Amino acid sequence: MTTTHANPSVEAKTSPVGEVARGLIRRSGPLLRPLAGRRFFTIWAVIRYRGRRSGKEYALPIAIAATPDGFVIPMPFGGAQWVLNVIAAGECQIRWNGRDWKATDPEVIDREEGAKAFGSIPRLALRALPIHRFLRLHRSEYI
Q1: What is the pLDDT of residues 18-41, one digit of tens each?
Q2: Are 115 and 126 in contact (CB under 8 A)?
Q3: What confidence tens digit (pLDDT) does each residue in 69-79 have?
Q4: In 3-state terms, what secondary structure has residue 3?
Q5: Alpha carbon of 84 to those of 20, 105, 125: distances in Å?
Q6: Which residues form the domain of 61?
Q7: What separation, in Å, do the N-terminal and C-terminal C-alpha atoms of the chain show?
Q8: 75-105 pLDDT, tens digit each
Q9: DSSP class of 6
């Protein structure tokens, strides 16, 4: 099943592997939240964003890679609400490596380009997962 949203480059695909991954991510969130964003635990960050309809602020632990000018985030579920909210707002906050960053200019990129931001071991894991899109953000300032 494919769902297309207002942004045609963001799709949600449902598959048995995707449903298992979604369940694991949902269950691991409470375990990762205390570690995400801390110094020396750089594979996990916390993304903070506002709901585009509710205006409510959300915080979510995410896997992340830092680049010289920003961040790259795997999108296991392209149509996830957090992705749509960040794209609609054009910005978010990222708590990574013990610091808070303003991240702007979200852009959906393909698997090949997104995987380049990750080291060799995480890249192997990414190949095994059904992740086809990544979200690239530019770091605009330290908060």
Answers
A1: 565 556 556 666 666 676 787 777
A2: yes
A3: 999 999 987 67
A4: strand
A5: 22, 13, 25
A6: 2-142
A7: 40
A8: 987 678 999 999 999 999 999 999 999 999 9
A9: S
